[in-house]
Amino acid sequence: MATQEVETAKGQRKTRVGHVLSDKMDKTVVVAVIRRYQHPKYKKYIKERIKYKAHDENNDCGVGDRVLIEETRPLSKDKRWRVKEILERAPAV
To answer: Is the pTM of this model over 0.85?
Structure first.
């Protein structure tokens, strides 16, 4: 019974889609996630950009890549996310 609870808890992790801003750190990338929401009073749509530090085990991500990140246990002081997959590669310059 305890193993089933662990599996369902892992299945409910938060995911976000964003673009890689920086890959200069070892095994870490900075991912910008843009969120659009409507202001409750003025009804204007607002764009909010949040930057997350995500763990990239194989250093596969490059600047401009579109990635899917998943919430995980704390890996360091700032890292709470892990790169799950690279959705789209940035065009080569």
So the answer is: no
